[in-house]
# Entry
Amino acid sequence: MFYRENGQFKTSYQSDLQIFPIAQDRIALALFALVAFVAVPMLASDYLFRAVLVPFLILSLAAIGLNVLVGYCGQISLGTGAFMAVGAYAAYNLNARIEGMPLLLSLIGGGLCAMVFGILFGIPSLRIRGLYLAVATLAAQFFVDWFTNRVAWVTNGSSSGSVSVSALQFFGLALDSPARKYLLCLSLLVLLGLAAKNLVRGAIGREWMAMRDMDVAAAVIGIRPVYAKLSAFAVSSFIVGVAGALWGFVHLGAWEPAAFGIDKSFQLLFMVIIGGLGSIVGAVFGAAFIVLLPLFLNLVPHWLGLAISTGTASFLEHMIFGALIVFFLIVEPHGLAALWATARQKLRLWPFPH
Amino acid sequence: MGFFLETLFGGLMAGMLYALVAIGFVLIFKASGVFNFAQGAMVLFAALTMARFAEWIPRWTGLDNMLLVNLLAACVAAAAMVVVAWLVERLVLRHLVNQEGITLLMATLGISYFLDGAGQLLFGSSTYKIDVGMPKDPMIVLENTFQGGLLLSKEDLYAAAMAALLVVLLSLFFQKTKTGRALRAVADDHQAAQSIGIPLARIWVIVWSVGGLVALVAGVIWGSKLGVQYSISLVALKAFPVVILGGLTSVPGAILGGLIIGVGEKLSEIYLGPMVGGGIENWFAYVLALAFLLVRPQGLFGDKIIDRV
# Structure
């Protein structure tokens, strides 16, 4: 009843091409942005920022980056953790070695280094496909694990292998409160998310999708595989690298190589698949699901009044997590984004059946 | 020269274990088209079952014949793997028929989380030992040829013999029995196999069971060498470069790939490692496989990839 586009005529090409064509969507988004940028920083508690909101925003960003590669270009990557690590360590080195380096430039520098690294490890994709490529990307993961562990230069010679950043400043504003960190992450997520959305709507996004659906046919109609695949790797690993730098700088503060291990790669892939392959908003849903699920599973025994040892609880959590993943894949293989699309379709007609 | 040969031998032994895990992968991939990430978790689960029942059976029944106890425990573990296979087919694969490869891969990741959790919840999470009576003492051979001789471990030789026996049994099963023929038919072409009346669902249970049994053998060998603990499930990560090097659909490829990776890993660690700070074992196998794939994208013996529009 309320969600219909009747009477909203498109009178120019510009309005035909706009990113949110339905007026109700624009209003809802404006309200949502108002809540996210104004109400949440005023109301949320420090715990909520630290344990839920900041990790959720950063992982959403990483999942969007991964979705560009896996969901849009069809190149499965199991090495996302490595790209995050490259972003984080590059940003750390820029920050530590150059006096007075602005935070934003460190983050972007981290993203650019991850981009170069991504292009490098994307080159095999020109020859190797599918599951073979998936395993080959594990090479990036293990190589970076080893590199950050063994090469002292990367950690600026720190003896324990862990690095830390302190006294972050963003254009003169000290990033000391969780609310400010949240706002920084949110702004970057909105900026890069919009950029990614516009890329996948445009010509280059269509090239990626053609590559994904059938690369030989795409090459036949004149899409250059080298350009399409490597640009997907570049965009994806830039976003993932920025997310990695944020994860290290803003969320963890101090970290060691294990923070970007293979578990992180799998976790991100779960987000992308559960959220929905080939959907920007799906990546955000997936990140929310994966961030909230362990917190929720931890709370359940409390509610039921059961006393479970931490060991048992963690194994149970593993089992439930695994079972839920399988359940989700069976019930909705196209992810939360497909559910969202169905819901919107239903809402357009409501309360009428047709 | 003696040292080189010892390293080579050690590499071959490690490679054989990788090959065992890789064979499990290849069998499952061929028959059900699933890239089974849970193979490592299956190795852990099988080894844990075996180790714990070998401990519990004497306590419950008072049996003290080691051979009998081990045999019983192995039977229990094998039964457990068959049950796992049946559950996987029933609860997971059946509902995911015709999904894309990556969805199936994610599903097996879910299975591996589940098995890791379940195994450690049921059987405990400390280190257990499996004692199947493998001799622990080393032996020295070819003393006349090399100064000081070659130091080999008897345990490794027994393990190699076990692995070879398993491969022979598997190939007999695949070549000589009716079920084996059905399995090969399904591996060749699902639809054609189905159209001549081979029940796909049952074949999947069988092939996942066989994968589980191979995992059990790998788990027993690995466990009696290093003890049964969580880190066993990470062996699977070593088996990935092996399968892509050998080709995802080829059992001989898995064996040869395993040996190549094992030897390459050990030799590189000894001769190349010191130059770059050591510890390169973890990624060398992947880089080796990657470099090889650039020349031959389908692996050593994989099906040739044909592009059609």
